[in-house]
Write a structure and sequence with these properties.
The structure holds 2 protein chains of 2 kinds. Chain A is an alpha/beta fold. Chain A is built from 12 helices and 12 strands. The termini of chain A are far apart. About 0% of the residues of chain A have low confidence. Chain B is mostly helical. The termini of chain B are far apart. The mean pLDDT of chain B is about 90. Classes of the chains: A alpha/beta, B mainly alpha. Chains A and B meet through helix 2, strand 7, helix 7, helix 8 and helix 9 of A and helix 2, strand 2, helix 9, helix 10 and helix 11 of B.
Chain lengths: ~425, ~290
C-alpha cells in the first residue's frame, strides 16, 4: 500500500509540475516587446529612401518576430509619417500612448528626428534612431532615452571634404587652397547639418569655397542655382539632397551646360542608385555617395562571425521583395543593421541584466553597449556618448564611407582602410558634366 | 562701380531668359485654372493633381506601352479632359449653388483623393520618362528645349483659348455665361453643357501641361505640391479668371524667382516673389490688370 500511495503522490506531483511548466511557458509567451516603427511610407521622402530603410528594419523585425528575444515576443506596430514632421510627432505620441508600444524606432528625415526626439525624451520613453543623421538631434541636448547607432551628418560632411583634400593634388593637380569647391544642400535639418560638416571640412582643408547655398527640396526650379554654379566654376560640388531635387538639379545642369570635376553626394537620394540611373541614365556613372557602407560591400573578413549569415538573410529577403534591382540598396542594409544592433545586443542585455524592457532598463542597456569596430554589419562599432557629453546618445564609433558608382556597381573609395578600388577623379573627358 | 557692373554678365542674361522660360511653364499651368474660375467661378485646388495624373499617363503610355511621345500626348490630353469633365459632373455640379468655401473644400478633398489614389495605384517611386531633349547652345548660354516647348505651348495655348472664346459659338456662350450665369439660359444656352465643356477644356489644358512637364520633372504622387501653390498664387496675382493677367503674372513671378535667386540665395527668390504677391494684394487686390474701382 505505501508503494501505491507513493506512486499516487508521484503522479500527482508530476501533473502539478507539468501544469506549472505549462503555466510558466504560457507566462513566458505572454511577455512581449511592442516596438513602434515610424518611417515615411507616403509623400516625397518615401521614394527618396525612407521606404527602403523601412524595408530593412521590417526584414529584421519580421525575423525576430519568429524567434523572439530571450523569452520575449517581438511585435512591431508600423506608422507612416507621410513626409511631415508634425505627423511624425503625432504618430510617435499615438504609438506610445494609445498603442502602448514600449519604444519607438526608425525615422528617416532629420526634420522629423529633431522634434520627435525632444518629445519622446520628455515623455521619458525609449527611442532608437536607425536612420536620420542630423547632429542637431543630439548636439547639446543631453537626452537620456534617445540613442542612435547611425553616423552623424557632420561626419558625412567632413568625410567627403577629407576625401577630396586627399586627392586634390594627385587627381586635380591643385593645392587644396586652389581647389574651387561649392557646397549646395536642401535647406532642411539634414542638408544644413551635412553642409556644416562640409564647411568645417573645407576650412580645415583650406579649400576655396566659391559658393555655399541651400534650397528647398520641393523647389520647382533650380536654374538660378545652376547659373550661379556656372558663374562660380567649381572643381568639386558637395551636394546634399533628397531625390526629386537631385534629378532636377542634374537635368537642369545638363540643359544649362554646367561643367565640373566631381559632384559628391551625401546619402538620401544619392543612396538609391536605380532611381539615379532611371533619372540620369549614363550620367549616373562616376557619381559619389557618402553613407555607411552597404552591408553587402562590407569586408566580412574582419567582421564578427555571427554577422555574415544575417547579411545573407537580409539580402535574400530583399531580393524576394525587390527582384531584379541591380545594386542592393545601402538604405536597406542601414535600416536592417541598426535595428539588429538593438535586437541582438541592447534588448537581450536589458532583459537579462536590467530585468525587463521598461525605458530605464533599455536606457541602461544601451549605455552599456560596447561593440568594437567590425562588430556591426556596417563595419563600425557602437559605443554611445554618455550623459553630460555634447552628443549624449550618439554612437561615438560610427563613420560613413565614400562610395562611387562605376558601371552599375558600387565601390568604397574612401577611407583607405575600407577602400575597394581606386577612385575615378575627376569626371572622365567626354562625360556630360566633365570640365576636361 | 566695377563690382556693380560685373553683375551684368552673360549669366545675368541667361537668368533672365531662364526666368522667361520658367514663366512659360507657370503660364501654361495657370491657363486652365483661370479658364475654370473665369467661367464656372470655382477654383480647382486639385488642378496640379490632374497634371500629376496626366504625367503618370504619359509615363505609362511611353515607358510601359511603348507608344511614341507624339502619339501618347493627344491620348493624355483627352484622358485629363475627361477627368476634368468627370470632376465637374461628380463634384462641382452638385455644389454649384453652395458657398464658395464648400466648393474649395470639395476640390481640396479631391486633391487628397488623387494623391492617395496615385500612391496606391502607382507606388511611391519617382518615375522618369527617359526622354532627353537636346539643348540649345548660344555661346556660353544653354537653354532647355523642354522649356522652350513649354513656353511655345503656353503661347499657342493662350492664343488658341483666346480664338476659341472669341471666334466660336461655344466660346461666345462660355464668355457670356461667365458674365451672367442667370440670364444666359433665357437666351437658349444650356449652362450645364457649357460648364461641362469648359471643365473638359480646363482638364485638356492640364493634360497639355502634363505632357510638357513630364519632359522636365520626375513624376511621383506628390509632384503637384511643387506647382499647385505657385499656380494658384499666379492666378490670384493676375486676377482669377483673367487670362492675360495670369499670363503676365506668371512671367513676373518667374523673373522675380530667377533674378532674386541669382542675386541672393535661391530661397530668397521665392521669398521676394511671395512678398511681391502680398504687397500686390494690398495695392491691387483684384489682380495686376484689374482696373481701380
Amino acid at each position: 500500500m505505501p508503494v501505491r500511495k507513493a506512486a499516487r503522490w508521484l503522479a500527482g506531483l508530476s501533473v502539478a509540475l507539468a501544469a506549472l511548466g505549462v503555466a510558466g511557458a504560457a507566462h513566458a509567451q505572454d511577455k512581449k516587446i511592442k516596438i513602434g516603427v515610424i518611417f515615411d511610407l507616403t509623400g516625397p521622402l518615401a521614394g527618396g529612401g525612407s521606404e527602403l530603410q523601412y524595408t530593412g528594419v521590417k526584414i529584421m523585425l519580421d525575423h525576430y518576430a519568429k524567434t523572439g528575444v530571450d523569452g520575449y515576443k517581438v511585435e512591431a506596430v508600423y506608422a507612416d509619417a507621410q513626409s511631415k514632421p508634425d505627423i511624425a510627432i503625432n504618430e510617435a505620441v499615438r504609438l506610445l500612448e494609445q498603442e502602448k508600444v514600449d519604444m519607438v524606432m526608425g525615422f528617416f528625415s532629420s526634420a522629423q528626428c529633431v522634434p520627435v526626439a525632444a518629445r519622446v525624451d520628455q515623455m521619458k520613453r525609449f527611442m532608437w534612431i536607425t536612420t536620420c543623421i542630423s547632429s542637431g538631434v543630439f548636439d547639446g541636448k543631453n537626452y537620456k532615452y534617445v540613442f542612435r547607432p547611425q553616423a552623424a551628418g557632420n561626419q558625412y560632411g567632413m568625410m567627403t571634404t577629407d576625401f577630396i583634400a586627399q586627392y586634390s593634388m594627385s587627381k586635380f593637380g591643385k593645392e587644396p587652397k586652389d581647389l574651387r569647391v561649392a557646397i549646395i544642400h536642401e535647406d532642411g535639418a539634414y542638408g544644413v547639418d551635412v553642409a556644416k560638416g562640409n564647411e568645417a571640412g573645407a576650412k580645415k582643408a583650406g579649400f576655396n569655397v566659391v559658393l555655399k547655398e541651400g534650397y528647398s527640396a520641393t523647389a520647382p526650379d533650380l536654374s538660378a542655382l545652376v547659373t550661379k554654379l556656372k558663374r562660380a566654376k567649381p572643381d568639386v560640388i558637395f551636394h546634399t539632397g533628397y531625390n526629386p531635387d537631385i534629378t532636377l538639379l542634374f537635368r537642369q545642369a545638363r540643359e544649362q551646360g554646367l561643367k565640373f570635376g566631381a559632384i559628391v553626394g551625401h546619402g538620401a537620394g544619392y543612396g538609391v542608385y536605380e532611381k539615379l540611373k532611371e533619372g540620369l541614365g549614363a550620367d549616373a556613372n562616376y557619381l559619389f555617395n557618402t553613407d555607411p557602407i552597404s552591408i553587402w560591400l562590407a569586408n566580412q573578413n574582419g567582421m564578427d562571425a555571427k554577422l555574415p549569415p544575417v547579411i545573407k538573410m537580409v539580402g535574400e529577403a530583399f531580393d524576394r521583395l525587390k527582384p531584379g534591382v541591380p545594386i542592393r540598396s545601402a538604405h536597406v542594409g542601414i535600416g536592417a543593421a541598426n535595428a539588429y544592433v538593438f535586437l541582438d545586443d541592447v534588448l537581450p542585455r536589458a532583459i537579462k541584466k536590467y530585468g525587463g524592457i521598461d525605458p530605464e532598463a533599455l536606457r541602461k542597456a544601451a549605455l552599456d553597449t560596447d561593440i568594437p569596430e567590425g562588430g556591426t554589419m556596417l563595419g563600425y562599432g557602437v559605443k554611445f556618448y554618455g550623459e553630460g557629453e555634447q552628443y549624449a546618445g550618439q554612437n561615438a564609433r560610427s563613420f560613413p564611407v565614400v562610395l562611387q558608382y562605376i558601371d552599375d556597381k558600387s565601390y568604397v573609395v574612401w577611407p583607405k582602410s575600407q577602400m575597394q578600388r581606386e577612385t575615378v577623379l575627376p569626371l572622365p573627358a567626354g562625360t556630360t558634366y566633365s570640365y576636361k | 562701380m566695377q563690382s556693380f557692373l560685373d553683375i551684368f554678365d552673360i549669366y545675368l542674361l541667361e537668368a533672365v531668359i531662364n526666368g522667361i522660360l520658367l514663366g512659360g511653364v507657370l503660364a501654361l499651368l495657370a491657363l486652365g485654372l483661370n479658364l475654370i474660375f473665369g467661367v464656372i467661378d470655382v477654383t480647382w485646388i486639385c488642378y496640379a493633381e490632374l497634371v500629376m495624373i496626366g504625367m503618370y499617363g504619359m509615363y505609362y503610355l511611353v515607358q510601359v506601352f511603348h507608344l511614341p511621345y507624339w502619339a501618347a500626348a493627344p491620348l493624355v490630353i483627352l484622358l485629363v479632359a475627361l477627368l476634368g469633365a468627370a470632376l465637374h459632373f461628380l463634384v462641382i455640379a452638385p455644389l454649384l449653388t453652395a458657398p464658395p468655401i464648400n466648393q474649395l473644400l470639395a476640390t481640396g478633398g479631391v486633391l487628397f483623393i488623387l494623391q492617395s489614389f496615385a500612391t496606391v495605384a502607382f507606388g511611391i517611386d519617382f518615375r522618369n520618362l527617359g526622354i532627353r531633349l537636346p539643348v540649345l547652345a548660344l555661346g556660353e548660354m544653354n537653354f532647355s528645349y523642354a522649356r522652350l516647348l513649354s513656353f511655345g505651348a503656353a503661347l499657342v495655348g493662350m492664343v488658341g483659348v483666346y480664338l476659341f472664346l472669341t471666334r466660336t459659338f461655344t466660346g461666345t456662350a462660355i464668355r457670356a455665361i461667365a458674365q451672367d450665369r442667370q440670364i444666359m439660359p433665357l437666351m437658349g444656352v444650356d449652362p450645364k453643357r457649357i460648364y461641362l465643356v469648359t471643365s473638359a477644356i480646363g482638364g485638356g489644358l492640364a493634360g497639355l501641361a502634363a505632357c510638357l512637364l513630364v519632359l522636365q520633372y520626375d513624376v511621383h504622387p506628390f509632384v503637384g505640391l511643387s506647382f499647385g501653390p505657385i499656380t494658384f498664387l499666379i492666378c490670384v496675382l493676375g486676377g482669377l479668371g483673367n487670362f492675360i493677367g495670369g499670363f503676365i503674372a506668371a512671367f513676373v513671378f518667374a523673373e522675380i524667382i530667377s533674378l532674386g535667386g541669382l542675386f541672393s540665395d535661391l530661397e530668397w527668390g521665392y521669398v521676394l516673389a511671395f512678398a511681391f504677391f502680398i504687397v500686390m494684394m494690398f495695392i491691387r487686390p483684384a489682380g495686376l490688370l484689374a482696373r481701380r474701382s
